[in-house]
Amino acid sequence: MSDFETGEDTVETGTLPLDAWHRAQGARMVEFAGYHMPIQYEGIIAEHLWTRENAGLFDVSHMGQLMVSGAGAAEALEKLMPGDFSALGEGRMRYSLLLDEDGGIIDDLMVTNTGGHLALVVNGACKWEDFGFLREHLPDDITLTHHEDQALVALQGPKAVDALSRLVPMAADLKFMQSGLADWDGVPLYISRSGYTGEDGYEISLPADAAEKFAEALVAMDEVKPIGLGARDSLRLEAGLPLYGHDLTTASDPVTSGLTFAISKRRRTEGGFHGAERILDLLANGGPTRRVGLALEGRMAAREGARVYAGEREIGTVTSGGFSPTLEHPIAMAQVDAAHAETGTALEVEQRGKRLPATVVKLPFVPPKYVR
After folding, report:
1. Which residues of 285-320 are buried (b: 16+ CB within 10 A; e: fewer)?
2. For residue 289, is it left (φ>0), alpha (ψ between -120 and 50) or beta?
3. Bridge partners for 313 per DSSP
4. Which domains, from first to last, does the chain contain?
5. Adjacent-strand bridge partners of 92
6. Mean confidence (pLDDT) of the chain
7. Widest CA span of the chain, in angstroms?
8. Which strands sit side by side in the sheet containing 224-226, from one edge to the other?
9. Residue 337: left (phi > 0), alpha (psi -120 to 50), or beta?
10. Of all residues in the chain, what percent are helix, strand and coil, respectively (each to 5)?
């Protein structure tokens, strides 16, 4: 398990459409992003390895599903993000970054052209802040809708395509970062071939009142098991994918965070997005730090906040860390001085008063298996 935050239940904690279903499946529930969420069923490592070899069903309904519509919606979003949404074809999606006026990262998110509007999926922990920021900065004639009545589930793993295409044949025709509308037993599904585990898989948006029936249909298949957020976090860490609030904050920028691919080619020339001058300067000249992967020796994992050293000099901080079930040794992501960010650089991480040997390695730790 890596830097996945849990906390004590409070009376304010919300419930998601599949709450009772998770409990009936034997899930251990925790508070996360303001909701009761399943962190594990039979164990994080077992669920992690199952997803790598089969298909895991994740409930990600805590995430925010937003719709942006109206004439000029793409251009309006381009003022707040570095993506090229005007050229985004119908059924195509793009990873992007919501930026404050100085180019700091408010959130990372997915933007999809559904044909009639642009759909955004944002992180659950900051969805209300995102909604407020968008409402403040988008023109009044752009409509922003929050789909609170929609559930969102992810089916991830090498056998996800086999399982989902039994219910929805069109799923097999989608490639990575493509999406489309389908019908299952009278239930409208919006399916994208995407996810945040590094595995092939899908995210499916559907009416909340149909979520339990759909989940039951999937887990009835031999290759599908429900998987908790603990394994989702260890999978995304192995995939080298940043977690907002940990690896990314408003103090982060796309360049030093290693997310330059989110700055579309046209935007690198034209700019015109929040913080463009600073970000394009960093893109041209480099920044003082870089997000890197660290492979650690031994069995002790480095956790978020652990200090990173080159000799006696402190040169960075761990932003996510944990034990890798796939690689069978601890791994971490850290923000370190650019002078010590080259692959192969020997460093140390201080954890519980001990110095742990670490080596800078290329991200991702485990190669992705996307179907392009």
Report:
1. eebebbbbbbbbeeeebbbbebbbbbeeeebbebbb
2. beta
3. 310
4. 19-60+148-236 (3.30.1360.120), 288-372 (2.40.30.110)
5. 178
6. 96
7. 64
8. 179-184, 187-192, 201-207, 150-156, 55-59, 224-226
9. beta
10. 25, 35, 40
Consecutive H or E run containing 237: helix 229-238
The CA-CA-CA angle for residues 34, 121, 71, to 5°, reads 130
Segment 188-206 mean pLDDT: 98
Quick one: which H or E segment has residue 23? helix 19-24
Choose the weakest-confidence range: 10-24, 51-65, 104-118, 300-314.
10-24
pLDDT confidence bin for 12, thresholds 50/70/90: confident
* Amino acid letter, 10: T
* Best CA proximity match to 151, nearest among 263, 58, 28: 58
- Split at pLDDT 50, 70, 90, the class of 4 is very low
Tokens of 13: 């904690």
User: What are the C-alpha distances in Å from 296 to residues 164, 237, 356, 367?
Assistant: 37, 14, 7, 18
What string of H, E and C letters represents the secondary structure of 187-212?
Answer: EEEEEECCCCCCCCEEEEEEEHHHHH
DSSP 132-185: HHHHHHS-TTSEEEE-TTEEEEEEESTTHHHHHHHH-GGGGG--TTBEEEEEET
Q: Is there a contact between 215 and 57 (Cβ–Cβ < 8 Å)?
A: yes
> Is the pLDDT score of 176 beyond 80?
yes
Looking at this protein, which amino acid is placed at residue 99?
L
Q: Which two three-digit tokens encode residue 319?
A: 């932003």
The predicted pLDDT at position 5 comes to 42
Q: Give the chain's end-to-end CA distance (angstroms, integer).
A: 29
Q: CB-based contacts of 352: which residues, under 8 Å, 6+ apart?
A: 300
Task: Give helix then strand counts, H and E, for the chain.
Answer: 9, 19
Cis peptide before 82 (omega within 30 of 0): no
Enter the tokens of residue 333.
Answer: 């992501």
Cβ atoms within 10 Å, residue 137: 16
